[in-house]
């Protein structure tokens, strides 16, 4: 099967690409290789993918309408996974234009490309951030998500709505995945576990927002990929459902949480890293950051019912694998 993966140089995109190649799919990867974080890490990920004969890489920005249209015309993918996005809640306070360009304009270009190429199934990354001011835990896809707390979250909610319109109007099967705090080897350097590891090894203080009183549903990368692949192979069908829910519709459109169904205190992350690294962290307690929430916690009942799978990798196990990778990838345990 020919599958187009956008954001192929990113954390999840690279891991997904390798999984699809391993099972024999042909993958065309797209990425603009921006410098939101160290481009060298993105190049290293891509180098692993280029070792496979079934992989082709394209450097382009999905916000470029003409380039995306030409891409779909040339590639004619059967399925598409859109993971290209400007990520990060905090960065959306600094550079909102990047989120509008990639997450809104870019996603619109992907939807139009899928429509014109008659793609069998579009799977795209949403985020747990869409739950915003919702205080009901665990977060369920049956909950309304009408109060985002950041522009990043708002763009992800917009993606779900945009996808629904294309599913309804053009019968394009779409599946949105709300990822919960993804971590693991080859991860994003802007994520807390990655920053904490670097700073603990360097003897620098780590910033703990909300005075350290936060909880996150940490989800290991392999579990994320398993969920994506299973759902990619199961395009939604139109139904005769007369009363649409926040996660389903009469159109071929579905939304799923992909999380570990475990809410872990931030201090547990810190103490686990301290044990794995053999060093004690220096703490700097700070107020809650604008746009952030105190806790995330995924209800994955819909995911399990749909594909018979739910993430379950314990944080200790996943962090141990990350630390092993980190020590091997960065000389002396220090990021370059």
Q: What would you note in describing this structure?
A:
There is one protein chain. The protein has helices at 11-22, 39-49, 65-75, 96-117, 151-170, 192-202, 221-232, 266-277, 301-307, 315-329; strands at residues 2-6, 26-31, 55-59, 79-82, 121-127, 174-179, 182-183, 205-209, 215-216, 219-220, 253-258, 264-265, 282-286. The chain contains ten helices and 13 strands. With 336 residues, the protein is of the alpha/beta class. It has a seven-stranded parallel β-sheet with strand order 3-2-1-4-5-6-11, sandwiched between helices. A two-stranded parallel ribbon has the order 7-10. Strand 4 (79-82), helix 4 and strand 5 (121-127) form a beta-alpha-beta unit.
Question: What's the structural blueprint in terms of helices and strands?
Answer:
Elements: E1 2-6, H1 11-22, E2 26-31, H2 39-49, E3 55-59, H3 65-75, E4 79-82, H4 96-117, E5 121-127, H5 151-170, E6 174-179, E7 182-183, H6 192-202, E8 205-209, E9 215-216, E10 219-220, H7 221-232, E11 253-258, E12 264-265, H8 266-277, E13 282-286, H9 301-307, H10 315-329
Give short descriptive properties of this protein.
two-stranded parallel ribbon; 336 residues; alpha/beta; 40% helix; 10 helices
